[in-house]
Predict the structure.
Amino acid sequence: MGNVLITASGLGVIRNGRQILQQADLTLEAGKIVTLIGPNGAGKTTLVRAVLGLIKVDEGKIEKTPDLRIGYMPQKLHIDVSLPLTVARFLALGGKVRADLNEILQLTGITALVGQPMQSLSGGETQRVLLARALLRDPQLLVLDEPVQGVDVTGQSALYALINEIRNRRQCGVLLVSHDLHLVMATTDTVVCLNQHVCCQGHPEQVTNDPAYLALFGESNGNAPSPQVAIYTHHHDHQHDTHGNVIQPAKSKLIHRHGSGCGDNCEHHHHG
Amino acid sequence: MVDFLLLALLAGLAVALVAGPLGAFAVWRRMAYFGDTLAHSALLGVTFGLLLDINLNLAIALGCLLLALILVGLQHNRFLATDTLLGILSHSTLALGLVCVSVFSENRIDLLAYLFGDILAVSQGDVISIWLIAFAVLAALVWLWRPLLAITVHEELAQVEGVPVVKVRTALMILMALVIAIAMKVVGVLLITALLIIPAAASRRLTRTPEQMAFVASLLGSLAVISGLAASYFWDSPAGPAIVLSATLLFCLTLFKRQHD
């Protein structure tokens, strides 16, 4: 085990009488990338918000390294057009700058954008500006909520490569939320599949010639030395019935306890 | 210059000065309706002030503060959209205020003065208390400027970065309540939001940073106060509405400016 930054154990969140997170465990370590996947409504964002301390959990506990510096890249950013705000001012709003500004600007490729109004940026540019603001805190932990959404495939690879480079250089922990159930960042150390509870977790498989990868990204990308995307194969030890209840396999013992957490949209349990 | 006109000018300028930056936040955070709600509750403050026989300015400020805090609490566990909630509170407090004023005050007060302002009747004591409050609010705004901007851009990001979001948001509401209390004398409860929103909106097209926008909004607000009072003096138009119309005129003029970005 490396340097553990956050240990969350047995987290449960109940909102309006509905259990949206149940018995969820998560460990984040320095220098490791954890990717969180799961269908819509699986509680990914809830888990991230709990880890960030933005919401109170109803069950379980979260242990954090004291004075942990977290760099957070939110899923969406909406700034009212009435607010005149340049990229430079937006970056300065993050508070005390602990990293070299020029270095971060170059790393995220936004040097040319600093004088632009925030509202004029494209989706990909906004993501990189948000990443830069997170990095300026010289974070020990980076939390990225769907960083590649709205970014094209090339931009996606570039962003994944950048996140990996940041991890290698700064040895920070990374928690990444992905909307894709099967394709994850290649250098991910652990994939956690969530559907109210942790359904399964493990290491993604490296793919260079996997037909599923090629079908999605085409041969033209094959000349890249190392693809930035990998396939994650789910190894569930349980299935869900139509009501979402966990069906116990006849002989095997369940490793963890389940309630009736999984919704009907849990459609990914046929793999592995 | 006539004495009462000088006092009116001094009071109006203080309000315009502080309404600039606060109005900018109202525009950026889409708080126009919130401002209306606070302003309407001020009338209720007047009633309580009369009933309890305490200083009316103090009663108005306390009434606004109380409502601001109730709103903060309601927004925490909401089951209705914010604009619905504000709509209910805004018009109920206004209606309640109107009823209470007419039932309890026995014609001791001039309702129109509270609805549309009575800037030409401010006393020396009023001017002093208005300036004191304006200075206090300005100082607080300078002190809280960066956290206020940070939560305006993205509340959760700000919270992760260590900004005490709930405290800062509550502080903004309190400042808003204070300014409404002093602006009531100038333009009355029905037009306060206009004094906050219009100069800030007019300033948007002329500026490129948040600070410039706040500063220019103060300038435009002051200009509106001066020209509104002038119109009132020369043409005998009601002062509060004249000030608001002057601000609207300035806003319309800025629409002719070509946008640079």
